[in-house]
Amino acid sequence: MAQIQRIADDIVLIDVHYSQTAQVIGCYLLLGDVPALVETGPASTVDTLLDGVRQAGLDPARLRAVAVTHIHLDHAGGAGVLARRFPHLKVYVHPVGAPHLIDPERLVASARRLYGDDLDRLFGEVVPIPDERVRVLDDDATVTLGSRRLQALDTPGHANHHHVFWDAAAADLFTGDAAGVALPGSRYVRVPTPPPELDIPAWAHTLAKIRRLQPKRLLLTHFGPHTWVEDLLAQFEENLYGNLRMVRDALAADEDEDAITARLRTAALRAIEARDGPEASARYEVIMPIRQSALGLIRYIQKTEQRTEKSS
Ligand SMILES: [Zn+2]
Question: Among 28, 109, 125, 163, which residue has the fewest nearby CB atoms (within 10 Å)?
Answer without folding.
Answer: 109
